[in-house]
Amino acid sequence: MEILLAIIIGILYAAGIYMMLRRSLVKLIIGIILLGNGANLLIFLLGRITEGAPPIIPEESKVFLEAYADPVPQALILTAIVISFGLQSFAIILVKRAHKVVKTDDLDEMNATDEDS
Amino acid sequence: MTQQLILYPLLLQLLLAILLMFFWKKINTQRIISMLGSLVHLAVSIGVFAYIWNNGTQTVQAGSWEAPFGITFIADTFAITMVLLTSIAGLAVSIFSSGSVIGDRLRFGYFPIFHFLLLGLTGAFLTGDIFNLYVWFEIIIISSFVLITIGGEKAQLEGAVKYFTLNFLASMIFLTAIAVLYGLTGSLNMADLANKVAAVENRALVEITAILFLIGFGIKSAVFPLYFWLPASYHTPPSAVSAIFGGLLTKVGVYALIRVFTLIFVGDAFLDQILLVLAIFTLFSGALGALVQNNIRKVFSYLIICHIGYMIIGLGMFTEVAIAGAIFYLVHDILVKTNLFMISGLIYRIKGSNSMRALGGFYANYPKLSLLMFIPLFSLVGIPPLSGFWPKISLITASFETGSYWSLAAIIFASFITLVVIAKLWAEVFWKDAQEIPVKPKFRYYHKIKNIKRIQIVVPIVFLSMVTLYVGFGAEHIQTLATRISSELMNNQQYIDAVLNTQISE
């Protein structure tokens, strides 16, 4: 399971960065989404995967009796998902506006800010 | 009551931002609330600063969860100094925005977002938890995305696409670094991490994590070779926005770098070497970039990059004197860079252009304003006794002590080029004969706007210039402050004890 997840995370990071390096604006958004999900999965993996041991204390005892899954990474991922969701929706609107105003979806043609003025 | 004292600056900004949202379309009310609120915020920050100065580092454990399990807020001298500088710059830009940002932008929630940005900055300075730092960074960048795009002009949107992409990438690298660090140590509290990272056996992995942090914060603070988004975007939004960005946004990256590399990843010769090399290249490339630009705001953008180098070089040399120099430079730079972008806004408002070739005759027509602008421009160069001069003494002393003569050369070279750039700007904009600039019929020139607006534009420049003069002439006080901060940073056990050994009393 860990190895599988590690490979998936690697693919997500690589694909995300590759897509961000492309010139099309739409591919930029896809890159952002892939990279965000890769980072979330990485937190999940590095919080150690523990199968079938939720961090809930049984009714009859007062402390944990066995090893349990770390709940902190889940809280972190939840926060990170919400944040990256917000950023992605902003990116989509930004790209839509930029496409409308600049009238191109090629990042190489967006060079008005580098011109001498 | 005094227990939660350090949270007051944070909560006040949050309150302001929420309050402003209730007056969404009433921009005059928003202006007044923002200016008064910023003034109160400055007063509160000064109060908290005085308390920390007298009583030492204070911590708050959110929800009374004992560290390292809950989220910690900590105000040592460094953090509270940054909060104080934020509120000084915030007050100046709030007044400047009231005078210079046009109503169409204000109607789309400029002020609430502006205060959310200041909230994020204050939070980033005060937090003692690395994941919480990430969350504050996200608040900062989301607010800055809105501020940079508000108005929706062509250049703004193009700049915003670049700004967004690279800042998003930086955040993801930062998040990756946090994930790896959590995997290594199982902790997120920075003081706890400082203990646990030192005990990790797999040093190679620790070093890689440190490099990830360096890249993440490096993009945000625009060090070589990660700075290209900055000159592509900082000159596109209104000057008020550039002012707060130029003054504070890159500096929060520097703050995070200094914090992480003096607390968590300490004393790694390899990392210090990398920091030094990056700083030297940052100094060179920023200075040379500024030399060839024609737009005033682009010149200032490159000078931001150049002067980030001074702070990173201080961190890289890693002696008490060097870090004191870096801190002093940070104080000076926040005030001066905010002021410079406001000045570029004032010049644009008067002449309708920011191109050095088109401008001219400023000194002949506006002698008083020119003298006012002289203060921040030549403070930046560091003509003694103005403020930019003093930190360089510490930095140069430190580079002799550590024997890093390349740093010495870079510091002197960058100062010299800054002098050339500012002299060129002075000659072109102020001394050259006035040029013919085509008059824009719809543009609201300085002489056409109401008196109150003119006051709102000039007063913050005067205010920041006065503070800069104080930093220059009262350098002794700032040096005392910088020395105290640097000794606190170098003896990080004090910070760790403050977080981990506090008893929570009900």
From TrEMBL, chain A:
Cross-referenced InterPro entries: CPA3_antiporter_subunitC, NUOK/Mnh_C1-like
Record's protein name: Cation:proton antiporter
Main localisation: membrane
Organism: Salegentibacter salarius
Family label: Belongs to the CPA3 antiporters (TC 2.A.63) subunit C family.
Keywords: Cell membrane, Membrane, Transmembrane, Transmembrane helix
Membrane-topology annotation of the record: Multi-pass membrane protein
Pfam families: Oxidored_q2
Any one Gene Ontology cellular component term annotated for this protein: plasma membrane
Residue stretches spanning the membrane: 6-21, 28-49, 75-95
Locations listed in the record: Cell membrane
From TrEMBL, chain B:
N-terminal signal peptide: none
Identification of the protein by name: Cation:proton antiporter
Keyword Membrane: yes
UniProt GO BP: ATP synthesis coupled electron transport
GO MF terms held by the record: NADH dehydrogenase (ubiquinone) activity; oxidoreductase activity
The species this protein was found in: Salegentibacter salarius
Annotated transmembrane regions: 6-24, 36-53, 73-96, 108-127, 133-152, 164-184, 204-230, 242-267, 273-292, 299-318, 324-348, 369-390, 405-431, 452-473
Gene Ontology annotations for the cellular component aspect, listed alphabetically: plasma membrane
Enzyme class: oxidoreductase
Domain NADH:quinone oxidoreductase/Mrp antiporter transmembrane: 129-418
Tree of life domain: Bacteria
Keywords associated with the record: Cell membrane, Membrane, Oxidoreductase, Transmembrane, Transmembrane helix
Classification via PANTHER family: NA(+)_H(+) ANTIPORTER SUBUNIT D1 (PTHR42703:SF1), NADH DEHYDROGENASE (PTHR42703)
Family label: Belongs to the CPA3 antiporters (TC 2.A.63) subunit D family.
EC number: 1.6.5.3
Lipid bilayer topology: Multi-pass membrane protein
Keyword Amino-acid biosynthesis: no
